[in-house]
Design goal:
The chain contains seven helices and 14 strands. About 25% of the residues lie in helices and about 20% in strands. It has four domains: about 100 residues, Roll (Ubiquitin-like (UB roll)); about 100 residues, Alpha-Beta Plaits (2-Layer Sandwich); about 80 residues, no CATH class; about 35 residues. It is α+β, with helices and mostly antiparallel strands. Bound molecules: iron/sulfur cluster and FE2/S2 (inorganic) cluster. Iron/sulfur cluster binds next to helix 4.
């Protein structure tokens, strides 16, 4: 085990853990943001620099600070290491630059993007970015590409995090897309055949941190914050069958895998569950899904689905309290002679 101090908090983690894993063990607001790291995908991390932190003491044996900020998602901990994130002004300043860099080519088309409201880049920019951008050159633009029956690629929005490539590589046996070309010409593509067809291909939509890979069966149907997420499951021969159904009225608009507090898929699901099974009768409903993140979806407007009686009781109690306060105020005013 190695003991490190992260933002003044001591934590003990297994040898070989990364700084980001140690921070996640502590949890809360001190955890660095991550746009490319994905705990369940081998090789992920080290692409976006969103998670940079300052190592002010390398280890107990060699207490010298590391000369540059390091990517916490790929830097292993050393016993006695001291790391600063939210408490270090240099880190906070550099993070603004990272946002600016990621937004150089990313269009600000949130009003028409299906990912808006659950977009990691939107949240990252909102929390860490500057209001202004200095970039004035011509931006990269791409035509949208249909990748088969279910997926549409908006390459213009891609931040080249490689998550979809690792997902297809590690989850399916026939990855047909990847990052073509290099440097500022790099792009996600299928090269010959513009189709991603296999039973688990839909998961690339869930892992994409931005709206570059979208679900064609859901596109433009609703803003996510108007949909009500509900946990449900079914017996599926291909995957765990545990999903989130996104309702609008009685209609299931889309089906996604369940995600944890870091917006990472807990268990991947198959295309049959995601795209082909969209009737309530196909599912066993478990109850409303609580979205823990600081997201517009988690405003709790759907909680009455679980506990209607509790909600009604709460509303009655609230109204009674308001009434009591009003009566009390009237009594007070009578006392001081303001009303009869
Ligand atoms: S399409 Fe999405 S998941 Fe794939 S590299 Fe681009 S941003 Fe990452
Ligand atoms: S999350 Fe660490 S570099 Fe992207």
């Amino acid at each position: 085990m190695a003991k490190i101090t992260f933002d003044g908090i001591e934590v003990e983690v297994p040898d070989g853990s990364t700084i980001l894993q140690a921070a996640r063990q502590i949890g809360g607001d001190i955890v660095p943001p991550a746009m490319c790291y994905y705990s369940t995908l081998k090789g992920s991390g080290g692409k976006c620099r969103a998670c940079l932190v300052k190592v002010t003491q390398g280890s107990a044996k060699d207490p010298r600070p590391m000369p540059k900020l390091v990517a916490s998602c790929i830097t292993p901990v050393q016993d006695g290491m001291v790391v600063e994130n939210t408490k270090n002004p240099e880190v906070l300043e550099v993070r603004k630059g990272i946002v600016e860099f990621l937004l150089i080519n990313h269009p600000l088309d949130c009003p028409i993007c299906d990912q808006a409201g659950e977009c990691d880049l939107q949240n990252f920019a909102f929390k860490h970015g500057n209001v202004r951008q200095r970039y004035e050159e011509k931006r990269r633009t791409f035509e949208t590409v249909d990748l088969g029956r279910y997926i549409k690629l908006h390459m213009t929005r891609c931040i080249l995090c490689y998550r979809c490539v690792y997902t297809a590589d590690q989850l399916t046996n026939q990855r047909v897309h990847g990052v073509l070309k290099r440097g500022d010409a790099a792009e996600i593509g299928t090269y010959i055949n513009n189709v991603i067809e296999n039973d688990f291909s839909g998961n690339v939509i869930d892992v994409c941190p931005v709206g570059a890979l979208t679900d064609k069966t859901f596109r433009f149907k609703s803003r996510v914050w108007f949909a009500k997420p509900v946990d449900a499951h079914r017996n599926c021969s291909k995957c765990c069958g545990k999903v989130v159904l996104w309702y609008k009225g009685d209609e299931v608009l889309r089906v996604t895998a369940r995600r944890n507090e870091y917006n990472e898929v807990i268990e991947f699901i198959c295309n049959e569950c995601r795209f082909e099974t969209k009737k309530t009768a196909d599912w066993v409903i478990e109850g409303p899904r609580k979205i823990e993140r600081t997201s517009v979806i988690s405003q709790g407007q759907y909680e009455h689905l679980e506990k209607p009686d509790f909600q009604v009781k709460l509303a009655k109690e609230t109204y009674k309290q308001i009434d009591d306060t009003r009566i009390h105020q009237q009594d007070q005013m009578k006392l001081i002679g303001k009303i009869d």
